[in-house]
Design a protein that fits this description.
The strands form two sheets. Strands 1, 4, 5, 6, 9, 10, 11, 12, 13 and 14 form a ten-stranded mixed beta sheet that branches. Strands 3-2-7-8 form a four-stranded mixed beta sheet. About 35% of the residues lie in helices and about 25% in strands. Strand 10, helix 5 and strand 11 form a beta-alpha-beta unit. It has about 325 residues and is of the alpha/beta class.
């Protein structure tokens, strides 16, 4: 790890930028959908947007296809205040589309339409190292290790990064098997400063199962300073060498369960970079996730810090 003086960014996220296609009307089966609306998406890209909305300086290292969606991605990044200098088009590739099924908002479906070699697998190791050196936090995902070239670039970036946050972000479509996930992640789990995932993602990474507290401790023993296990409707817990913090979920009317974890991630980075106590960070993170779950879209739903504060204030008055 490297210690950076006055870095250009608070966080640089790495990985896919996709175009999300959401049904224009809620509660319809895919066969009954008449039209879709398009949004900027992709988990690491959403985290960069969430961080920007929280007041941080953020950028994303990503690739799109050399197609009609590239300008849309860049335009939306810039509209959200996310630096787009490393959002480049790859000739001969197509931008990934993610079509969402919101018939069941608590468990929305997501189908990816992507090239066999999607554009984000073309990330350059030197460029990624440059981006890591320009940021206080480098946010990477397990999906970034799904191909050899991308995995090599991600691994090399540890050398120039100040702090690395690894989001386990498991997408079955991107992997041949769960054992492949474990094999690719085993060398880097202990090198990350923080590892974040839901219960299933942590179990896949470890190859074991157990209570959220048990798997958090096991993952912590592998080396990270912070492990966060997201428990969906139950909330989330954070484990460090000093102990565990559990944060209960907030009850909201769920419109779209997608994107809540990315809002959560943006708040984790915010807390880490501004020096908030972990308990406050976890409360803000779970609140941000609840806010996004109650809204349509993902990137467009990310809350500001004022909105998070107002949400928490309204809950304290109940």
């Amino acid at each position: 790890m490297s210690v950076h003086v006055n870095p250009a960014f608070d966080v640089v996220t790495v990985g896919r930028a996709v175009v999300d296609l959401y049904p224009a009307d809620d509660g319809r089966a895919p066969k009954d959908v008449d039209s879709y609306r398009q949004y900027l998406g992709g988990s690491p890209t959403n985290v960069a947007v969430a961080a920007s909305r929280a007041g941080l300086r953020s950028a994303v290292v990503t690739r799109t296809g050399d197609d009609l969606f590239h300008d849309f991605v860049v335009d939306r990044l810039e509209a959200f205040g996310v630096d787009s200098r490393w959002a480049l088009a790859v000739p001969g590739r197509r931008t990934t589309l993610a079509v969402c099924d919101l018939q069941e908002p608590h468990e929305p479906g997501l189908t990816f339409f992507r090239d066999p070699q999607p554009p984000e697998e073309s990330l350059d190791a030197d460029e990624l190292g440059e981006a890591a050196a320009a940021s206080r936090v480098l946010w990477i995902t397990a999906s970034g290790f799904a191909s050899e070239q991308s995995a090599a670039a991600h691994t090399a970036a540890f050398a120039t990064a100040d702090q690395v946050f690894l989001d386990l972000d498991y997408r079955a479509d991107f992997w041949a098997s769960e054992s492949d996930v474990r094999d690719r992640l085993r060398p880097v789990l202990g090198r990350a400063d923080a590892v974040i995932g839901n219960v299933r993602e942590v179990e896949i990474a470890l190859g074991t199962s157990g209570t959220p507290a048990d798997i958090a401790r096991e993952l912590l023993d592998s080396g990270p300073r912070l492990v966060v296990v997201k428990e969906g409707a139950k909330g989330a817990l954070a484990a460090t060498a000093e102990g565990m913090i559990e944060q209960a979920a907030f009850d909201v009317q769920t419109i779209n369960g997608l994107g809540a974890g990315d809002a959560f991630g943006g708040q984790l980075v915010h807390g880490a970079t501004v020096g908030l106590p972990l308990e406050d960070t976890m409360r803000n993170a779970v609140a941000a996730g609840a806010i996004v779950a109650s809204r349509r879209g993902c990137s467009v739903a990310m809350p500001t810090m004022d909105e998070v504060a107002q949400f928490l204030q309204s809950r304290s008055e109940l």
